[in-house]
Write a structure and sequence with these properties.
Elements lengths: L1 H12 L2 E3 L2 E3 L2 E7 L2 E6 L6 E6 L4 E4 L8 H9 L4 E4 L5 H4 L7 E4 L14 E4 L5 E3 L4 E6 L8 E5 L4 E5 L7 E2 L7 H13 L6 E4 L12 H15 L5 E2 L8 E5 L2 E5 L6
Parallel strand pairs: 6-7, 7-8, 8-9, 13-15, 14-18
Antiparallel strand pairs: 1-2, 3-4, 4-5, 5-6, 10-11, 11-12, 12-13, 16-17, 17-18
């Protein structure tokens, strides 16, 4: 126990010690007992989360594949089995699947994975439960950013992992093959159950200037409705290769493709 506590303190203070070497690819923050945020700080940045239950653990997303992720999870949870589950298939959240044998994800996003993975895929769907022994997560399908985007809801501890489906700055709906009406239904779905959680953990913590509030979800529903109704101004979105426009209402912004609204 003493050795494990010492390790956690080292992780919090600086970088991760792995096999006597300093791994600078990640920063690990202890959010609460048995709950860590693993932030990629080198290469393409994104965020993973590790939750430890009595019998096993859940790793939500695996960043872009920077070395050291599996060693970090092994050191934090010891010999407990880990369920690796993806919020969606984009490379900055799935690149690290090469370090794990079994991956849980929505079937609709398998086409987004990098070719050549040797991991065994297990498909999850809306309503499925992930059980860790004393901790449960309900799978919520929230397509719009990608067809297979999902969220993981912990009702007991009142928090939710949303990946990029509810982003920390804006949501990219313009890169999905689904029309914007699909994303609207996903946001409405989250809004209906927002009395079941207090905290939102997104897929890019590095972009968060302030933590999201539940009002963000309502603002996201409103801005999406206004885009579909043609009741809001938008500007050309100049970041990335995919064409799009961005509209903002309150704390929420949506990047959308005007050719794929309905």
């Amino acid at each position: 126990m003493k050795t494990r506590l010492t390790l956690i303190l080292v992780l919090l203070i600086a970088s991760v010690k792995i096999s006597g070497q300093t791994d600078e690819n990640y920063r690990v923050d202890l959010l609460s007992k048995g709950f860590w945020r693993i932030q990629a700080v080198k290469g393409v940045a994104s965020t993973a989360y590790l939750v430890e239950g009595k019998t096993n653990a859940l790793l939500v997303d695996v960043c872009t594949g920077q070395e050291g992720l599996k060693e970090i999870t092994d050191q934090l949870i010891g010999s407990k089995p880990v369920i690796v589950a993806l919020t969606h298939g984009h490379y900055d959240h799935s690149g690290g699947i090469k370090y794990f044998k079994d991956i849980y994800m929505h079937a609709a996003d398998t086409g987004l994975l990098q070719k050549g993975t040797n991991a065994t895929l297990h498909f999850i769907k809306d309503g499925d439960m992930i059980k860790l022994g004393g901790i449960k997560f309900r799978v919520l399908s929230i397509p719009g950013h990608t067809p297979g985007s999902v969220a993981f809801l912990n009702e007991k501890d009142r928090y939710i992992f949303t990946g990029d489906g509810i982003g920390s700055t804006s949501v990219w709906a313009h890169i999905s093959n689904d029309p914007l009406t699909v994303y609207l239904e996903s946001v409405k779905k989250l809004e209906k159950i927002k009395n079941k959680f207090d905290k939102i953990y997104v897929g890019h913590h590095e972009q968060e200037s302030v933590p999201l509030t539940l009002q963000y979800i309502t603002d996201m529903r409103i801005v999406t409705e206004k885009i579909l109704a043609g009741e809001i101004e938008s500007q050309v979105y100049g970041y990335g290769r995919a064409p799009g426009r961005v509209a903002t209402y309150g704390s929420a912004s949506v990047v959308f493709n005007p050719e794929k609204l309905k």
